[in-house]
Amino acid sequence: MGRIDLLDPTHKVQFLVELFRRGSRQKQRAPHRNHGSNSTQDLKTSRPRHRHDVDDVVRTCFIDDFTSSTASSDDMSDRMRGVERDHEYFCDSSTGDDQCCLLRVEDTLFRVLRLVLCRDNSVFSKRLWFGRRKGSETLALPGDVERFRDLLWALHTLPPDFHFGSQFSELENQHYTHLHDVPLPRLLNIAELASEYSYPTFQHWAVEKIYYTLLHSSFEPFTALNTPTSSISTSSSITLVTLGNGLSSSKHIDPDVLYGRIMEISLKTQHHRLLDLLVQQLITKVLWCDYVPGSALIRVMKRHHRSHKMIDILLGAVHYRMLINLPQFEQPPPHNTFSPPQPLFPYEMAIEERMEFLAAHHSLTQLWKKTKNNAPELRTQSHEASASSPPSSKRSSKKLRSSRRASANSSESDKHLPHDLHSSCKNTWRRVWLSACSYAENQIRRHSGSPCDVLGMLKVTMLRVRKLTADDCSICLHCSLEGLEALDVLRDQVIDGLPGMFSYT
Q1: Is the dihedral of CA 173, 165, 10, 22 positive or negative?
Q2: Lowest CB count within 10 Å: 28, 198, 210, 470, which one?
Q3: What does the DSSP 8-state code read for residue 51?
Q4: Interior angle at CA 338, CA 367 and CA 462, nearest 5
Q5: pTM
Q6: Contact 375/434 with Cβ under 8 angstroms?
Q7: Which portions of the chain have biased composition (kind: Low complexity) (predicted)?
Q8: What is the spatial distance between Cα 413 and Cα 102, in angstroms, rounded to a whole number?
Q9: Alpha-carbon distance 109 to 84, whole Å?
């Protein structure tokens, strides 16, 4: 059954009635009009009787910032000195003044069709149709010229029936080749201004495009820091998710600004998929690519972390990265009683923040000692245990998951080995785990790493475990894979618990 679009002609009928009434009133005032001036008094008498009702609606739609200026055709050139016409969105003089609207943003003048501005039942609808605004009058808008030009691009580019409820799916986008690769900054401008001027359908389209831009990006990650990544990188076995496409085309835009704007848009529109995707990508960059966000992005996180768990985890990961990047101080040998090195805080760091970082340093150091002495438990040790599938890591690598699927048939016989042989696997796993953890500690210490870098030591431990289990015949393949999966789950638990470590009582 085909789709039926119902059009509401109410506002058009009201517009026609208003035109008839305006014409009749102009005939009555014609003998008394003073042609020598277009004063403010004439504008006041030409306003509708119910202007306060329209102003209430407009005020709720954030139009209070609009300031209008009127001028006669003779004074227009003098009044607009220093203002240039936009080269793209300025209708020629063949279009009547009653069909267009003059808009001024900064020092640029736009002349746009009213039908275009009134799409999607925007806040311009009542302002232009019922405000008795002449085509020669200028409506001054706040904001940036480039951002407003991006909004006009969307209003002129998307199909005419777009605001009537068309879903405009990705399949329909194929018919509009110029909509395939929209730069990310342009999408952000459209989403923000569509929210400000009440274009809900255009806002939804822009936010969805932002989501798919991040989801399908396949470019190299940003080189976010000037400091080189150490050879003992804390990268995990997970596949890195990167921001590309639109971001790569924005060489001169601060990535933190883009991240902050995307986060604000996802929160304002309650687009949970976009927020989750952005947070996961930022956690990946912070923990595994040695990326530290700037103060502006951190302020955005702090404003929302208490009401959004994912942002709270992201903020914990940022604090963790800042902690392990601090220089370490170790007492000289005569006074060194085998105590771990302590972080050196910068002079400008606040006392409360130092206390939080010291509490996290102590908690992470104790967590590593506990983790080293307690190897992750192997679930597959009997027929009953092997019948239930083990928990899967939400950040486990595709390579590890594919290895488990590929070895499912070959390891099926390992599940049904006698219990004493699986006990041998368990003993071997404990021995391999302790050896790998000791190796990770030595590697971190050799490269002057932080003793509280639990995730970094878990990464080195995982690489060492893979090598040792591959060369050791006393542990079966299935138990080896179970151990690596348990290590992934342990890593996720550490990441999720980072926010709680940066608190002291």
Answers
A1: negative
A2: 28
A3: H
A4: 40
A5: 0.72
A6: yes
A7: 383-394
A8: 78
A9: 6
In the predicted structure, residue 384 carries a pLDDT above the cut 90: no
By the 8 A CB rule, do 201 and 162 touch? yes
Tell me which residue has tokens 């004493």.
420
Q: Determine which helix (DSSP H) or strand (DSSP E) holds 290, and give its type and residue range.
A: none
In 3D space, the residue among 113, 25, 109 whose CA is nearest the CA of residue 71 turns out to be 109
Strands 342-343 and 328-329: antiparallel
Give the residue from 456, 490, 458 showing the smallest Cα distance to 320.
456
Put residue 376 in one of left, alpha, beta given phi > 0 → left and psi -120 to 50 → alpha: beta
Pairwise CA distance, residues 254 & 251, whole Å: 8
Cβ of 105: how many Cβ atoms within 10 Å?
20
Please, what is the Cα angle at 330 between 328 and 332, to 5 degrees? 150
* First-residue to last-residue Cα distance in the chain: 64
Per-state percent for the chain, helix, strand, coil, to nearest 5: 55, 5, 40
> In this predicted model, what pLDDT tens digit does every residue of 460-479 receive, in sequence order?
999 999 999 988 888 888 88
Query: Which residues 6+ apart lie within 8 Å of 347 measured at CB?
Result: none
175: which DSSP letter? T
Instruction: Write a three-state SS string for 424-468.
Output: HHHHHHHHHHHHHHHHHHHHHHHCCCCCCCHHHHHHHHHHHHHHH
Q: What is the DSSP code string of 14-33?
A: HHHHHHHHHHHHHHHHGGG-
Kindly give the residue spans of alpha helices, DSSP state H, lying in 270-308: 272-288, 295-304
Question: Residue 364 burial (CB < 10 Å; 0-12/13-18/19+)?
Answer: buried
DSSP symbols for 462-490: HHHHHHHHHH-TTS-HHHHHHHHHHHHHH
Q: Closest Cα to residue 136, out of 77, 49, 84, 197?
A: 77
Candidates 330, 285, 321; CA nearest to 452 is 321
Tokens of 1: 């059954």
In the chain, domain spans: 40-142, 154-225+232-325, 352-381+415-505
The Cα–Cα gap between 462 and 456 comes to: 10
Burial (CB < 10 A; 0-12, 13-18, 19+), residue 410, is: exposed
Q: Which amino acid is at 499?
A: P
Contact 120, 163 (CB under 8 A): yes
